[in-house]
Amino acid sequence: FWGPFLLFFAYDLIRSRGRSLLPRHPGPSNPESISVVIPTLHAAKALPQCLLSLEAQEHAGLEVIIADGGSEDETRSLCEASSLAPTWVDAPKGRGQQLLSGLQAARGDWVLFLHADARLPKDALLRLQRALRFHPEILGGALGQRFPSDRPGLTLIEWMNDLRALYHQTAFGDQVIFVQRQAALSRSEER
Fold this sequence. Notes:
The chain is about 40% helix and about 15% strand. It is an alpha/beta fold. A 6-stranded mixed β-sheet has the order 3-2-1-4-6-5, sandwiched between helices.
């Protein structure tokens, strides 16, 4: 009866190197201070809708960082035309390198990684801030993923992704992921 539970517990301990028992908390953070990092590479088609979803957020002083891996299309001019005035970071090509470059350039206490083909619901940042205020022990997480279609198969995938994130505490790379900046920076320095 207890076998599956104990196997999952052992897997989690090995995966987290014991940090799941005693997580390190780098100190207090300000849930109002959010930086959004958008990794891009030839994202001119998708980026305008992404930036519009950020403009619709009810958040003052939102820092937006475009970590570009060498776009040769209109990505940069779209960023320059945005009312958000995003910071442009030339990053090495590769999604992981771009995310790290954006994280290192961020000034907010929290960093939200948003892909250029994703859109945030209008109240996403307010809901995230509320959750972080009430649960200051959180170091990171992911937002649920919703597809623009209501096909039953895609709805099933959405539910399965939500369950995976909830019970296994892992997210897919194309979900909207948020982290406490200082915790993520210290973790990246360990590697």
